[in-house]
Amino acid sequence: MALTLRTLDTNASLVQQQTAIRQAEELGFRLLSLTTDRVGGGRANLVTFVQTPDAPATAITLEVVNGGLDQDAQETALNAAGRQLVCYGSLSIQGTPENVVVWRN
């Protein structure tokens, strides 16, 4: 199982980052995790993929988590019916750090 690390632009929108991840998955890289980090001395969104023989059956969706909710309310929102949770992490979206959930239908 080969892992691949990619960086995403910290100034990109949520939709642009979602599109970049979806494009990688279409090439046979399944998303494992995402986080903010430092690469080459600068801030970066670090995304970890595992190589797979085929693209996933369904595309991922990124969603900013409402940090104003308490833990129980966040978990209820994250585990909504029809969603398969992929991961939960942080991304800089248009330069602002945000907690993000990634899910599939």
Description of the structure:
- The protein has helices at 14-26, 71-78, and strands spanning 3-8, 29-39, 42-51, 60-64, 84-93, 96-104.
- It is built from two helices and six strands.
- It has one domain (3-104).
- The mean pLDDT is 91.
- It is of the alpha+beta class and 105 residues long.
- A hairpin with a 2-residue loop joins strand 2 (29-39) and strand 3 (42-51).
- The strands form two sheets. Strands 1-3-2 form a three-stranded antiparallel β-sheet, with helices on one face. Strands 4-6-5 form a three-stranded antiparallel β-sheet, with helices on one face.
- Number of strand segments: 6
Radius of gyration: 14 Å
Number of helices, where a helix is a run of at least 4 consecutive DSSP H or I residues:
2
Question: Which percent range describes the beta-strand content?
Answer: over 45%
Low-confidence stretches: none
Quick structural gist:
This protein has helices spanning 14-26, 71-78; strands at 3-8, 29-39, 42-51, 60-64, 84-93, 96-104. The chain is an alpha+beta fold and 105 residues long.
Features of the shown structure:
alpha+beta, three-stranded antiparallel β-sheet, 6 strands
Describe the SSE topology.
Layout: E1 3-8, H1 14-26, E2 29-39, E3 42-51, E4 60-64, H2 71-78, E5 84-93, E6 96-104
